Amino acid sequence: MRIPFTKMQGAGNDFVVLDETQQAYGLTPAQYRFLADRHFGVGADQILSVRPAPHPGVDFAYVIHNADGGEVENCGNGARCFVRFVHDRGLTARRQVRVQVHGGVMTLQLDDDGRVTVDMGPPVFDLPRIPFDPQGLTPRFVGAWEVWPLPLAWMGGMAEVPVSVLSMGNPHAVWRVDDVDAAPVADWGPLIERHANFPRRVNAGFLQVLDRRTARLRVFERGVGETLACGTGACAAVVAGIRHGWLDERVDVRLPGGTLTIAWAASQGLDAPVLMTGPAEPVFEGVIDVPDLP
Ligand SMILES: N[C@@H](CCC[C@H](N)C(=O)O)C(=O)O
């Protein structure tokens, strides 16, 4: 099957974007893995599919697959690329677009400077909805909110990582570290991702607070590995930082691939929406032969 695609990136988190508004390709997990493969395919952290609106009140459906071929609930950097894609291709003239994602409806705004602001909706703290199973763990409070000490088997012994857990439509565990450059992202990221207390696995964020309005973040993404940026991860880290009293309500998050601005008016209630602003850039377009892969 020959498939046209657009390669895009948002703060270095990169995507293959497919227009499935006229024709559904019906790709298998193995075919998504092929597209994401950096040697044999196009190469991407996620594959984004633009599909027709499933019901009135939204403009499109937005479906996300990780590089490992698994479908996931949300992707913040992808959402910004999504709106830039539908606008650039003339699929809509609207600068404000509503899309159905797995976890709900998101509103995306193409700003005059080419950046995109996404209303990511409120964070989710209800443990079963994250989903997070606290069995065997005793939380402790840091500021006004709990952290969960996750035991990790490491080098023949046990380490303990205190994480804040929440969902931004997808699951996140955030650990505050002193220095992200020295954080054990490659070693402990996979252990956190597959920890038994997260039944659907988790994205692992390593947060360094520089001051109340500036943070650094590295994310070991579920189904991918460390990426240059994670939009939902940046939202989750800022929400955690605000709830623990480390951060103000508007924060610049410096990721390895760029900076995202995250705003959450927690003083108006924990159900206030999280707003994320950042770049979304096309890289190149192409057509690829996708082999039959069951
Ligand atoms: N890169 C994304 C998150 C993509 C999904 C994530 N890996 C998951 O499995 O939940 C972002 O920008 O939010």
UniProtKB/TrEMBL annotation:
A cellular component annotation (GO) from this entry: cytosol
EC number per UniProt: 5.1.1.7
Stored Gene3D superfamilies: Diaminopimelate Epimerase, Chain A, domain 1
Keyword Chloroplast: no
Keyword terms of this UniProt record: Amino-acid biosynthesis, Cytoplasm, Isomerase, Lysine biosynthesis
Gene Ontology biological process terms from the UniProt entry: lysine biosynthetic process via diaminopimelate
Pathway linked to the protein: Amino-acid biosynthesis; L-lysine biosynthesis via DAP pathway; DL-2,6-diaminopimelate from LL-2,6-diaminopimelate: step 1/1
Site, Could be important to modulate the pK values of the two catalytic cysteine residues: residue positions: H172, E221
Catalytic residues of the enzyme: C75 (proton donor), C75, C230 (proton acceptor)
EC category: isomerase
Binding site for substrate: N13, Q46, N66, G76, N77, N170, N203, E221, R222, G231, T232
InterPro entries (alphabetical): DAP_epimerase_AS, DAP_epimerase_DapF
Record-linked HAMAP family: DAP_epimerase (MF_00197)
Known partners and oligomeric status: Homodimer.
Protein name, per record: Diaminopimelate epimerase
Gene that encodes the chain: dapF
